[in-house]
Amino acid sequence: MPFDDLRQWIAALDRAGELKRIRTEVDPVLEITEITDRVSKSKHGKPGGSALLFDNVKGHPGSKVLINQFGSEQRMKLALAVKSFDEFGERMRMFMDVKSPQGFLDKLKMLPLLTEAGKFFPKTVASGPCKEVIERDKFSLLDFPILQCWPQDAGRFITLPCVTTRDPKSGKRNLGMYRLQVFDGRTTGAHWQRQKVAAEHFRQALREARSKGSPRALSLPANSAVVDLMARTSGGQVLAESDHPSGKMEVAVAIGTDPAVTFSAIVPAPPDIEEYVIAGFLRSAPVELVKCETVDLEVPATSEIVLEGYVNLDELRTEGPFGDHTGFYSLEALYPVFHITCITHRKDPIYATTIVGKPPMEDAYMGKAVERIFLPMMKLTIPELIDINLPIEGVFHNLMIVSIRKSYPGQARKVMNAIWSLGQAMFTKCIVVVDEDVDVQDLADVTLKVFNHIDPERDIQFMLGPVDSLDHASHLPNYGSKMGIDATRKWPTEGFTRPWPDEILMDAKTKALVDSKWKALAKELGID
């Protein structure tokens, strides 16, 4: 059964013994982070600890804060109502891999899929719980228990927002998750990195504004934030400071959505698939949306809190630093400013949030779920893939370990380049490719095989390209080097003519003989 809203999800967590209610007074500035970090990294009890519901927040009487809701494999499976991520991923692959029918029988076979797909599309309803309170005039973000997570953070940040924007040219809607630094009661930063869809919508709005005027095409200093977020347009031209086009782009932010919607905001959805369709697929029921009050956008009807407003096309402001999922602070940079025109919310809204920092934290479990669910779809493009592992400590864009079924020389390098061509996977700093008999989930096995199998000069390749905005080591912001390691067995057709040794393994007969004696041996050895 799908969860209609955050409250049903909280009740399910409670029934499953996955929720702890905290009644001790806590401060949203730093203290909630420290408590949650200790819980998520505790070596006592279950991995990831429990989801936490704080209901005695300093300075915010009556408010409740939900955090760590996705912070374990068990809770991620509960959120998506699955027993296995791999099985669910295969179902999603089948749904996405709908080929054009070749004949009448193929068309008949497609009918069940098309009928099922029709159930997933969002539907707009007249109203919903998120409209229980509508504030157009006297409102302030500071009324909500928004966290400051880490000591050097630039302030309080909204960290689990579902941000809706619309392409001004095509009208296509997008749902993404971009942190929002609270500047004051009515404005925030809009931290959509340049490769994100919302940033492209912003650039498209700039192009549309330019097409209505005749600004001069001049050069600006290479300030990456200004050039790439504000001024860079088609043809590689930039605008002079005096020529920045006026105009606005509408934005709507939902906080405290049902788990399928929240998860869909972070998934690397295929370009032609709207996130609300993914959410409908995850929950096996359409997401109900309502029109906003002051902007022409839709938001989930059961959201706890909705922020409506706009960003100006000619306005940037310093955002950050922020303690990020890399375990280091992401540095300050210029980003658009989100001006809030209206806030709607449920009565006594629950504020849903998360923290990021040194792994493992809640985002690690969300990332691993994405890894397992989207592996089958990666195989549509890279059919030789066997398995992948994005180690948590690699923060999902620093290291990917890949096993392949090798069938021709140079295939490992082909796979590296294929991965670097796939959406957000283009940011992967290091890709390690191994043979199919290596268990990529076993880092001890990977370490043994990789460093025995490589000749560094021959098997390591470097390339330049886009890197994650959070990569503080690249020689330029957002542009740097990547490394691929071919740790597969080398073939004569790859220029390797020496014998390749066999791995040391005991023969099956001896293993079976010892197995038959192991119970008695274990007793003598004192092994349980």
Give the C-level CATH assignment of the largest domain. Answer: Mainly Beta
Q: Could you list the spans in which at least 5 consecutive residues all have pLDDT below 50?
A: 107-111, 214-227, 229-244
Structural class: alpha+beta
Question: How many domains comprise the coordinates?
Answer: 3
Arithmetic mean pLDDT: 89
Number of strands: 25
What integer value in Å does the Rg equal? 25 Å
List the total number of helices: 14
CATH-derived topology of the largest domain: Pnp Oxidase, Chain A
Distance between the termini: 42 Å
Query: What's the shape?
Result: globular
Judging by the overall fold, what is the CATH architecture of the largest domain?
Roll
Biggest β-sheet strands, sense, barrel: 7 strands, antiparallel
The residue fraction in helices comes out at 25-40%
| Proportion in β-strands | 15-25%
